[in-house]
Design brief:
By secondary structure, the protein is an alpha+beta fold. The protein has one domain: Endonuclease, Chain A (3-Layer(aba) Sandwich), CATH 3.40.960. It contains 5 helices and 4 strands. A 4-stranded mixed beta sheet has the order 1-2-3-4, sandwiched between helices. The termini are close together.
Length: about 130
């Protein structure tokens, strides 16, 4: 469900990462965690996820105070969950100051099997994202 507008918006966001996103990206990129590939500012359905490991169906969001009790975020989180994604949400301050703890939480989630996904049976196996 990617369209040209969301692809362009994601590209713009990748060029303008927040300091917190940049710091976390340095720890996620290059398959540093369990060999899992993370992408940044990924269009998924009608939304753009800050970071996503599509093979593990894991989304990581890094948010500022404007997201506090956001009804839009609740709808977004529910949509991701309905698609089978696990979602971890951290505050900018956590990603900047407690980077190791954030990475440990992501690693812990990656090490737990996803409750709804069968094991992958070889390369090229992908689930369709609605």
């Amino acid at each position: 469900m990617r369209n040209a507008k969301s692809q362009q918006h994601a590209k713009t966001l990748r060029k303008a990462l927040t300091d917190a996103e940049q710091k976390l990206w340095q720890r996620l990129r290059g398959r540093q965690l369990e060999g899992c590939k993370f992408r940044r500012q990924v269009p998924i359905g009608p939304y753009i996820a800050d970071f996503a490991c599509l093979e593990a169906y894991l989304i990581v969001e890094v948010d500022g105070g404007q997201h506090l009790e956001s009804s839009r975020d609740a709808l977004r989180d529910a949509w991701f969950a309905a698609q089978g994604f696990r979602l971890l949400r951290f505050w900018n301050t956590q990603a900047l100051v407690e980077t190791d703890a954030v990475v440990d939480a992501i690693l812990s989630t990656l090490q737990r099997p996803h409750p709804d996904l069968p094991p992958l049976a070889g390369e090229g196996v992908q689930r369709e994202i609605r």
